[in-house]
Amino acid sequence: MGKIIHTGSRKVGVAPGTLIHIGKKQLTEPKITVIDYNADHFQEMVAENIEEAYPFKDSENVSWINIHGVHHVDLIEKIGTNFGIHPLVLEDIVHTDQRPKVEFFDSYIYIVLKMLQYDKEKEEIIAEQVSIILGSNFVISFQEILGDTFDPIRDRIRTSKGRIRKQGPDYLTYALLDSIVDSYFVMLEIIGENIESLDDELLDSPTPKTLESIHRLKKEVILLRKFVWPLREVVNSLQRDESFFVKESTSIFLKDIYDHIIQVMDTIESYRDILSTMLDLYLSTASNKMNEIMKVLTIIATIFIPLTFIAGIYGMNFEYMPELKWHLGYPVIWALMITVALVMLAYFRKLKWI
Amino acid sequence: MGKIIHTGSRKVGVAPGTLIHIGKKQLTEPKITVIDYNADHFQEMVAENIEEAYPFKDSENVSWINIHGVHHVDLIEKIGTNFGIHPLVLEDIVHTDQRPKVEFFDSYIYIVLKMLQYDKEKEEIIAEQVSIILGSNFVISFQEILGDTFDPIRDRIRTSKGRIRKQGPDYLTYALLDSIVDSYFVMLEIIGENIESLDDELLDSPTPKTLESIHRLKKEVILLRKFVWPLREVVNSLQRDESFFVKESTSIFLKDIYDHIIQVMDTIESYRDILSTMLDLYLSTASNKMNEIMKVLTIIATIFIPLTFIAGIYGMNFEYMPELKWHLGYPVIWALMITVALVMLAYFRKLKWI
Amino acid sequence: MGKIIHTGSRKVGVAPGTLIHIGKKQLTEPKITVIDYNADHFQEMVAENIEEAYPFKDSENVSWINIHGVHHVDLIEKIGTNFGIHPLVLEDIVHTDQRPKVEFFDSYIYIVLKMLQYDKEKEEIIAEQVSIILGSNFVISFQEILGDTFDPIRDRIRTSKGRIRKQGPDYLTYALLDSIVDSYFVMLEIIGENIESLDDELLDSPTPKTLESIHRLKKEVILLRKFVWPLREVVNSLQRDESFFVKESTSIFLKDIYDHIIQVMDTIESYRDILSTMLDLYLSTASNKMNEIMKVLTIIATIFIPLTFIAGIYGMNFEYMPELKWHLGYPVIWALMITVALVMLAYFRKLKWI
Amino acid sequence: MGKIIHTGSRKVGVAPGTLIHIGKKQLTEPKITVIDYNADHFQEMVAENIEEAYPFKDSENVSWINIHGVHHVDLIEKIGTNFGIHPLVLEDIVHTDQRPKVEFFDSYIYIVLKMLQYDKEKEEIIAEQVSIILGSNFVISFQEILGDTFDPIRDRIRTSKGRIRKQGPDYLTYALLDSIVDSYFVMLEIIGENIESLDDELLDSPTPKTLESIHRLKKEVILLRKFVWPLREVVNSLQRDESFFVKESTSIFLKDIYDHIIQVMDTIESYRDILSTMLDLYLSTASNKMNEIMKVLTIIATIFIPLTFIAGIYGMNFEYMPELKWHLGYPVIWALMITVALVMLAYFRKLKWI
Amino acid sequence: MGKIIHTGSRKVGVAPGTLIHIGKKQLTEPKITVIDYNADHFQEMVAENIEEAYPFKDSENVSWINIHGVHHVDLIEKIGTNFGIHPLVLEDIVHTDQRPKVEFFDSYIYIVLKMLQYDKEKEEIIAEQVSIILGSNFVISFQEILGDTFDPIRDRIRTSKGRIRKQGPDYLTYALLDSIVDSYFVMLEIIGENIESLDDELLDSPTPKTLESIHRLKKEVILLRKFVWPLREVVNSLQRDESFFVKESTSIFLKDIYDHIIQVMDTIESYRDILSTMLDLYLSTASNKMNEIMKVLTIIATIFIPLTFIAGIYGMNFEYMPELKWHLGYPVIWALMITVALVMLAYFRKLKWI
Ligand SMILES: [Mg+2]
Ligand SMILES: [Mg+2]
Ligand SMILES: [Mg+2]
Ligand SMILES: [Mg+2]
Ligand SMILES: [Mg+2]
Ligand SMILES: [Mg+2]
Ligand SMILES: [Mg+2]
Ligand SMILES: [Mg+2]
Ligand SMILES: [Mg+2]
Ligand SMILES: [Mg+2]
Ligand SMILES: [Mg+2]
Ligand SMILES: [Mg+2]
Ligand SMILES: [Mg+2]
Ligand SMILES: [Mg+2]
Ligand SMILES: [Mg+2]
Ligand SMILES: [Mg+2]
Ligand SMILES: [Mg+2]
Ligand SMILES: [Mg+2]
Ligand SMILES: [Mg+2]
Ligand SMILES: [Mg+2]
Ligand SMILES: [Mg+2]
Ligand SMILES: [Mg+2]
Ligand SMILES: [Mg+2]
Ligand SMILES: [Mg+2]
Ligand SMILES: [Mg+2]
Ligand SMILES: [Mg+2]
Ligand SMILES: [Mg+2]
Ligand SMILES: [Mg+2]
Ligand SMILES: [Mg+2]
Ligand SMILES: [Mg+2]
Ligand SMILES: [Mg+2]
After folding, report:
1. What are the transmembrane regions (chains A, B, C, D, E) (predicted)?
2. Nearest ligand, CA of residue C31?
3. What is the pLDDT of residue A141?
4. Within chain E, which residues score under 50 in pLDDT?
């Protein structure tokens, strides 16, 4: 998962709107795909350069232009000029440490949030900034890296499944947001499963590794919280939007996303709570183990130290030690030692140590 | 008790309103029961299939249709079509990880919340999602598994006890909610009794088992909190509802439920507080036990180690050790040892260790 | 002090307004006392049965009917019928686990809160639910058990001291609330004194008993908080009340109670804070004690273990051990041992252990 | 510093406005001083009795009457009668456990808050309740004990420095409040210096004394917080006051105090946070020390215990032990022992214990 | 980084507006620089004395007067008189412990906040108070010490880069604030990197030094929070300002700063959370290490103590000990000892200690 703050190169005092990319540098070429559709029409293409996508700006159909590679600041600048996007918005698109937010402009709405994907090989969550420009008949989505959660949406458009082909760009935007929020549930499930298995481990056989895992999960949950918390207000603002960009019919679907976000937040808060408790618990479990170790040491030591002392007494070389001459000296001393040991054991049993 | 999040199979990016059940899969057949009544009339039946229940939609009487088995998505879809329920509501009915909420539509109100029951055999709390559709002259309730807290309500309807037969579907909805909230008190009492007995155990004879129980209770309380917290707003919205679905006469009863929910929340917060304190306490108690163990070890060791050293001295084999020849060497050394031991004991008494 | 939740017998799903007593069952007979007064008139009586109190309902004077024993549900029901009290209010009177609240009705105001008294013998705080019905010219107070904080008020009415005889039932209600809130200060003082003495004990000579007391106080404070927190809103509502039940002249007195409640809350929060700190402190103090114990053990062990080893060397029975034959072998070995011991002691001094 | 609650003698149920002093009983005589001034006029006197101060009530000049000794309830009562002050206000003046607040009456404003002074000898903070009555052309201030923070104000009035002589009683009230709030900064600085020096001590050489000091500071900060938190609302209310008591020109000065109070609150919150961290830190430091102690013990014990065992072997008295007869037996055993010791030391070095 | 409160010399009770500098005393001469510009014109000068800067007050161009050295109270007083600044504002400029705030006056806006710079040599963050007076056609900025984050802005003005030369003093003020807020990100990155490296250290090889660093970072974050939290409201007020000082065109840029501040706050909260967790973690790690130490001690001690006892037995000097005469006594005893040791080792393996 990403770090909590990019240790990038934010330049102090540069003019606002100066496009300097802040974030993970991806070495790949940018990839531009266009999907243009309405109830009856469907066209899909991979654009060689951004100029190929310009005509779709004014097509009556819904045009979805998806850009992979926001670190190509020239590309972003061209899009900004052609589609009339404010320089501060362009800056936010390339500064990939944005807090999720929505901003309303006269000719478009700007939405920025985090998409999460799980890298099964590295066993870590990959976070990526996604920006969405919702215009009157186009949607532009900006991503940092290849791969996204949008494939089922592309399929629904291609196969004309569900209502998506009959709706406008606001519904497409809803669909994109919904698939991103759905992906949060997947992450929560992964984290939840990790918590459950750590929880068992914690009480059965905790190791320093367990502690490390709890700590890592806690940091992931703190980060997730940073991503989700502001999203509630984003979706709420979209839903209440009075402009003509978000149609009333889409509003109920946004309400559904809103519910999902609250569910995600609730779960995150529960996880935080449980992980904190688990850290406290680890300490108690470690104390318990220490107690067990100390008991073993104490039992062995307190039984044998007095016995060794007794043996030491009769190992002394004084000339005049009457016991040494006694015929029954040796068995008597054994009897004494066994008695001492039994008394000690009885005492430990009384203390419930054994 | 249920897990904090279902590790189910939420599909990312599927079209909204696509009915895929998320939750515990119950293998039983669905069970549909109908109770139709007014002040003078009473009819009760178990429907073979959902079609038998359709006529009640338009009967003037209050019709209560109860469905067990929300994982039968075909059934839910049929009900949706016949009773005119929005696809997103149907989705929420079958996704059994909903946060409690209420939604107002033109022809019905949708309420979703959690019903809790205690499984005495397994000694665990069973949580189940209950959805309620309140129409103008019918109530449909959806449950995940057989068994509920509604039997006393069925009895009151059958025997015409109290005011229920004279009231409308809003009052029936109130009664269902009231019985569910009452069941929360029962769970709180069970948890409360567990806390009290753990509390005694904690100070008397804590074991790792105690720690485990505290942790389990804490997780249950966190989960309960997730279920109850949003319920306050649900009942509040219902009470303030301006539509014709909730009559003014029912409002004061909803206020009574509202009071109960606040009481439940207060108690949950107290439990959380106490359980956190108990975890801290466990650690202190473990430290105390460690101190006791260490004292025993230290007392034994510090008394006998010097004595053993003295014995060791006179176990040495030097040719010229004058003490060994003394007639009183042995008793003098015993006197020395006893003195050392008594001084040590006096020291420990001064430290208040013994 | 009472438990955080009554482990009583709340019945799930019973009709609202069904009077089942939940709380501590008191075996005594109910006791009904009536005080009827105005500026010039005073009458006091103990009623044999509730019917004797009915006439006072319509007397022009202020009539204060006090009932001890809310578990006599028949009695409560009769009062409900005669004085026109809503069944849900009656239910709340006999369910003695209410959260403090006020409810406004057309012909009366219903107030419920907790009265606290200190049982000096058992050294514990006794909590009891008090319900107050404020009518146009009567006040009915309901208590669980005999004994209350109202005696000074009775005296002021009897002796016509202060303004009470010249005022209406709203002022009497104020006086009752004021005496209950004053009793919270008494409880806070008792808890405060306990905290101060535990605090000294904690740093001087903490024992597991200290820990237990801190925990008990913490639970009492959590419970007190549950009782006081909602009271603020109760008094605030009464003060702002627009109905004719609370006269404007009484409002400034309610403001005075409001101030007191805030003071109580502030103190409770401080106590919570301090008690939490004390729990943390206990752990640190236990760790300190452990360090002291370990130092004693380590000093003794690390001094004598090497010495015992040296003695062991010269206790070996090899035929060819030249040192054993030396004339000065024994005193040289003593010198060596003393040197080792002194070096060890110097080392511990350097570590500031001794 | 004062206790968190006075363990005084609040009487339950006494009539409101009954003057019983609650607080520290001061044995001194009350002291009454009067300063009467306007731009051109200045008069200062110590009054023998309160009657001498009465005439100033109606003088056109600003009259500042300062009373030391609120436990003289007769005196307070006389002032109340002559200046027309509400009995509940008089009660608050003599009950010196008030929460800071402001109350607006027709002919005066009542302000109550805490003045803090540092007793250098006892090294403790002294808290005292100050009540201020702001009338149309007089100010009465009530203090518990001799000594205050008002001397610089008296000087400014005497020497006609600054704007004070040209302003009304509202500006005098501002000046009194400002000097009290300024004194909070002095206390914060004292506490802050204590925290800094404890912080160094904590990481260098913590002792149980350090723990005690952290705990004492934490309690002082909790108490300070109780005094300052409500003050924000007090000054805010004064500033917004619409009555003719607070002139618009004084409002900007009250805003300045408001800023100061927020600064004080911010600092208090930071201190709370840091002190909590320091308590946690102490525990970790204690654990570190324990680890150091245990390492010393373990190193010494694990080196010498095996060696002592070896020595013990060859101290046995079996008739047939071939090694004992060997010519090189003794040096070989020494070599073995030294090897064992070196291996142990190497092991500890690998563990980074030494 | 600065202390949480200046241990300066705030004088209790001095007249408001009396200029006494509170803060770090800088011994340098004050330094006054002026930059005067519009779209076509640019002039830059270092003023010998403040009188040289007076004419710029009324120039039509944007005039930026920057003052280094707020401890020169005479200088501040002269500026106050000439530019008509309220005495309380001047007081705030020289009291360098202000909470960030904005105040609106008829002829100017006063803004105060903290500028942060990193001293690479001392490896610490330097905080300094910056005050900004925004007039109709001038901006005065006040700093405590030489060096600031404004150089890129000076360059943009000099080289006419970006829009700054075409905008008014409000845009210059925005640029100053933006560069200060940008510097917070730099500090967060430095702290973030520290946290990451401590986090690795914590789980791998924690030392008391690690603990000290965590504590130091936590205090820095607490301080940073004090600086940033009120800034949100400052920028929000500026943005909503209805006066003619902040033009509508600048508002969107202020919104951009507002976003940045929220981002900073989010990150600060995450850091606080993580650092608290790290403190808890340190304790657990210390406990783990203790367990490891104790295991080593216990394993060695419990193996050799019984063996040494056995050796002690046969070191006794009783005349009648039959085993001593046995031919195989010595090897049998070795066999016994090895068996005991192996049993012990098997037991420890079962406990998973080795
Ligand atoms: Mg910038
Ligand atoms: Mg931006
Ligand atoms: Mg990223
Ligand atoms: Mg992507
Ligand atoms: Mg904790
Ligand atoms: Mg979806
Ligand atoms: Mg959905
Ligand atoms: Mg849904
Ligand atoms: Mg479920
Ligand atoms: Mg069921
Ligand atoms: Mg009720
Ligand atoms: Mg019920
Ligand atoms: Mg009920
Ligand atoms: Mg009830
Ligand atoms: Mg009770
Ligand atoms: Mg009673
Ligand atoms: Mg009062
Ligand atoms: Mg704690
Ligand atoms: Mg009273
Ligand atoms: Mg009172
Ligand atoms: Mg009072
Ligand atoms: Mg004084
Ligand atoms: Mg000042
Ligand atoms: Mg903690
Ligand atoms: Mg001042
Ligand atoms: Mg000031
Ligand atoms: Mg100021
Ligand atoms: Mg500077
Ligand atoms: Mg920037
Ligand atoms: Mg920016
Ligand atoms: Mg510990």
Report:
1. 296-316, 328-348
2. 16
3. 97
4. 1-2, 5-8
Same domain, C255 and C319: no
Is D216 in the same domain as D337? no
Q: Domain containing E221: what range?
A: 19-284
In a mutational test of the B interface, the residue from A116, A296, A298 whose CB has the highest number of chain B CBs within 10 Å is: A298
Q: Please identify every residue whose CB atom is under 5 Å from ligand 5, which is an ion.
A: A 280
The reported pLDDT for the residue numbered E7 is 44
Tell me how far apart the alpha carbons of residues B261 and C287 are, in angstroms, rounded to a whole number.
43
Give alpha helix (H) positions in chain D: 73-83, 87-94, 151-158, 169-204, 208-240, 248-313, 322-325, 329-350
Question: How confident is the model at residue B146, as a pLDDT?
Answer: 87
User: Above 50 in pLDDT, residue A7?
Assistant: no
Q: Look at residue C25 and tell me whether its pLDDT is greater than 80.
A: no
| The predicted structure's pLDDT at residue B98 | 92
AA identity, residue B354: I
Average pLDDT, chain D: 90
**Domain membership flag for residue C9:** no
Mean pLDDT to the nearest integer, C74-99: 94
Residue of chain C with shortest Cα separation from B324: C330
**Closest C-alpha to C79, from C133, C129, C130, C37:** C133
Same domain (yes/no): A62, A175: yes
Q: Which residues pair with D113 in a beta bridge?
A: D130
Tell me whether residue C4 is in a domain: no
C-beta atoms of A317 and B317 within 8 A: yes
With CB atoms and an 8 Å threshold, state whether C13 touches B178: yes
**Domain boundary, last residue among A284, A302, A336:** A284
Contacts of C256 in chain D (CB under 8 A): 16, 88, 91
How many whole angstroms from D132 Cα to the centroid of ligand 22? 13
| CATH code of B53's domain | 3.30.460.20
d(CA A327, CA A337): 18
Closest partner residue to A99 (CB to CB) among E182, E262, E285 is E262
At residue A4 the predicted structure's pLDDT band, cuts being 50, 70 and 90, is low
Task: Tell me what ipTM this predicted complex has.
Answer: 0.86
Q: Contact, E284 vs A211, CB < 8 A?
A: yes
CA distance B157 to B136: 19
Taking 80 as the threshold, does the pLDDT of residue B236 lie above it? yes
Residues of chain B positioned with their CB less than 8 A from the CB of A163: 15
Is residue A322 located within the same domain as residue A195?
no
Interchain CB distance below 8 Å, B15 and A313: no
Alpha carbon distances (Å) from C70 to B9, C133, D181: 53, 14, 51
Domain assignment of residue C306, yes or no: no
Which chain B residue's Cα is nearest to C296?
Answer: B298
Residues of D in contact with E88 (CB under 8 A): 252-253, 256
Residue E299 in any domain: the answer is no
Q: Is the entire prediction scored with pTM above 0.80?
A: yes
DSSP helix/strand/coil, B151? helix
C209 and C325 co-located in one domain: no
Q: Are residues E136 and E270 in the same domain?
A: yes
**pLDDT mean across residues, chain C:** 90
For residue C71, pLDDT beyond 90: no
**pLDDT the model gives residue B3:** 56
Nearest Cβ partner for E281 among A211, A222, A330: A211
Strand order in the sheet with A42-47: A42-47, A31-37, A62-68, A138-143, A124-134, A109-119, A101-104
Verify whether the Cβ–Cβ distance C13 to B151 is below 8 Å.
yes
Same domain, D153 and D239: yes
How far does the centroid of ligand 1 lie from the alpha carbon of residue E157, in Å? 15
Domain end position, chosen among A284, A305, A331: A284
- Dihedral sign from CA coordinates of A35, A36, A38, A43: negative
Q: Which two structure tokens, joined as six digits, stand for E63?
A: 């005039």
| Cβ neighbours, 10 Å, residue C46 | 10
Q: What is the tally of structural domains in chain A? A: 2
Q: How far is the CA of C253 from the centre of ligand 20 (A)?
A: 8
